[in-house]
Design goal:
Blueprint: H1 8-17, E1 19-22, H2 36-53, H3 60-63, H4 68-72, H5 74-84, E2 89-99, E3 126-132, E4 143-145, H6 156-160, E5 166-167, E6 174-179, E7 184-186, E8 195-203, H7 228-236, H8 251-258, H9 263-276, H10 281-295, H11 316-324, H12 329-335, H13 341-354, H14 374-387, H15 393-399, H16 405-418, H17 426-429, H18 438-451, H19 454-467
Antiparallel strand pairs: 1-6, 2-8, 3-6, 3-8, 4-5, 4-7
Amino acid sequence: MTDHAFSDDALRRFITDGYALIESDPSQGCSDDHPPEFHEDMCERLDRVMEQEGNPGNNILPRVPQIQRVFDAPHVSAALTRILGPGYIMHPHRHCHHRPPGSKPQGWHKDDYVYDQNARHHRGRWVMAFYYPQAVSADMGATAIVPGYQHHDTTVAIKADPTLEMSITGAAGMVAIVNFDIWHRGGENTTPRHRHMLKFQFMRMEEPVTPDTARAETNLEWPDADGVSRYQWDWLHGASDSPSAENGVDSATAIEQLLGDDESTRLQATYALAGIGEPAVPPLVDALREEAAQHGESKTAKSPANPAGGNPADLATAHALAALGPSAIDALVDLSTHSHWAVRATAVDVLGTIGSPAAAAAATIPQALQDENVWVRRNAAEALGILSDANSIGELATALKDEDWRVRLNAAGALARIGPEANSSTRDVSPLLDDENRYVRANAIQALERFASPEATDVLLHHLMSARWCSLTSKDSNY
């Protein structure tokens, strides 16, 4: 039997570099992978669709359902499972990036969270996967990425050193799994060949539950000085807090660095504060109040790092408090009722980001679903989903009727994460199958599927029978 495991070293490199390349190579005994003819056929199908019908956007998968086999391949699913945990799901947004001959290079950007506005926290609960059905060379409009800079908010470092750029090239059938926050762009295609790249997104649905001791079982090298990679490794292996460390930096100095302009120094300061532990909480809370009040509004603006706009909780102090973990929870609970909306929005968001250790604080978050400010409501709904708080099902069901689609989206997503325990909300979720927003509809479908009750299944099947897409139907073959 072929071993499809995604190794410790592969996971370490994914964490530090922000990408992993999964090759399709039947010649090496990967009998479950696809032969060259599969990818050739995929290119022909994509060429035909693009030429005759145009780009189908999110409907590329139902239009060419054979694509699903790429992500079901054992090598790909093993990597996704190691990174996102069991039960991960494919997001309904997907796109065929078609770069015909003569395509000009894109600008550097990060993808937004499908028109929602998530804070870009360092715990990666989303990834993207790029599938290339044809061999790609650097001059074919190859996707370029910047390894190791996924936690930088600007392109300052990239512009200062263009050699940081790396083109993703390889044989037909390659899948690149990348950190959702990686800087990337499509390159210039100077060849006579068409290049297809199918972009899909995947989401974690369960928090890591491996015992804390697992983080010490593997002696790995961590080349980065900022601590973020080891922090992510520990979290993926069930660590509930950041281990204390003697780093020779006091809280005041670290906070000054945290709020400075240099992004590498800022990352180092984030995890220096995590190493200080509980004594760093009071000054960090003071700094968060000030940072949220000054910059919460501006953080929602559009930029290359946030094409649809950012989240007011995407603050340096928020990342530091999230890294502190359990020692910051009581202070964050207090901040969740602060007089300033951006402070409240940040507090509930960070509680969710901390995840399982903050479960005891979950009882204080549902009240935020009634907040007058949409950002507080939106972030509270997302947080309750990460915490999978079954006690908040009633409040989340009420939030499904919120006037803002971002709140409805995250409330439905939260109920999906809670799963079967939330099946009592089936009648509340069902109306969202006709929501005006396509992603709210998708989260409603996901919730009903995960409820796994007879009532939810009946509602879901009834809806899908009328919404069914026939991949054989086209303008040239209507019936």
